[in-house]
Design goal:
CATH class of the largest domain: Alpha Beta
Radius of gyration: 17 Å
Largest sheet: 8 strands, mixed
Strand order of the largest sheet: 1-2-4-3-5-6-7-8
Shape: globular
Helix content: 25-40%
Distance between the termini: 25 Å
Number of domains: 2
CATH architecture of the largest domain: 3-Layer(aba) Sandwich
Number of helices: 10
Structural class: alpha/beta
Length: 266
């Protein structure tokens, strides 16, 4: 394990494997650097890249601050990029893709950007989180109701059937990992605020993200994720959309297929 210090003094933990151009992995909700899918993907990519797999703040071995601000998470990623040599390829998954996109638009030195199923909801008829989603997730965590927060985030935020959370609760290893990072769910909710309301994406918000970009989406994924991916492809200035079976992320990551697509792009 290595650490880098972010701009606000927070220690960010990461693992580094492989040789070659620098590639940083940005995890989504419920994930961290030791999540099996993250580790497998890093190892698959390590044959051609120096892969930096880090814990977003508040997760795993990384530190945290007393309050959350999206700008601090962007600074964390910028610190990782500086640690990786001053510029890097970046892959972001789900809410991690939103974070990576925000960082790219703010001027982070990302040479190529891979956005893997950012959970934008652009259809009025699709599932949308409640209007008080961020507030309620935050209140559940403040009350130390982590299990309730996990269920609420999955069902009301992600639109998963209620039995999914129940099944996961019956899997001790999986459930303990979810509980360990549950307190960061308000961070992911904050990142997604305004982008899951069933409205068209803004056309001018990310125009400064001019680096070559690929959006990955699985043909087996929920339709709202697929529509969100296509909508994002319509507003970014230098983008390609890759749709393929096996690129979905709502179940187990198919790291072989993902690694192949990333290698072809980078």
């Amino acid at each position: 394990m290595y650490t880098v210090t972010s701009k606000d003094g927070t220690k960010i933990a990461y693992d580094k494997v492989g040789q070659g151009p620098s590639l940083i992995l940005v995890a989504g909700a419920f994930s961290y650097r030791k999540f099996p899918g993250q580790v497998q993907l890093a190892n698959r990519l390590s044959a051609q890249y120096t892969v930096y797999n880090y814990d977003r703040r508040g997760r795993g071995d990384s530190g945290d601050a007393s309050s959350y601000d999206i700008a601090r998470e962007i600074e964390d990623l910028e610190a990782m990029i500086e640690e990786a040599g001053g510029s890097a390829y970046v892959w972001g998954l789900s809410s991690g893709a939103v974070l990576a996109l925000q960082a790219a638009a703010s001027g982070a030195k990302i040479t190529k950007l891979a956005l893997h199923e950012p959970p934008f909801v652009v259809d009025a008829a699709g599932h949308k989180p409640p209007s008080d989603f961020v507030r309620h997730v935050t209140e559940l965590i403040a009350a130390n109701r982590r299990a309730d927060a996990i269920k609420y985030f999955m069902t009301q935020g992600m639109g998963a059937p209620s039995f999914v959370a129940l099944i996961m609760r019956l899997m001790p290893g999986v459930w303990s990992n979810l509980m360990a990072v549950a307190h960061t769910l308000p961070y992911d909710a904050a990142l997604l605020k305004g982008y899951m309301d069933g409205r068209p994406l803004p056309t001018d918000l990310w125009t400064t993200a001019t680096m070559p970009t690929i959006i990955l989406e699985g043909t087996e994924s929920p339709v709202q994720l697929r529509h969100g991916a296509k909508a994002l492809a319509g507003v970014l200035p230098n983008v390609q959309l890759r749709s393929k079976k096996g690129l979905g992320h709502t179940k187990k990551l198919n790291t072989e297929i993902i690694a192949a697509e990333l290698t072809a792009f980078f």
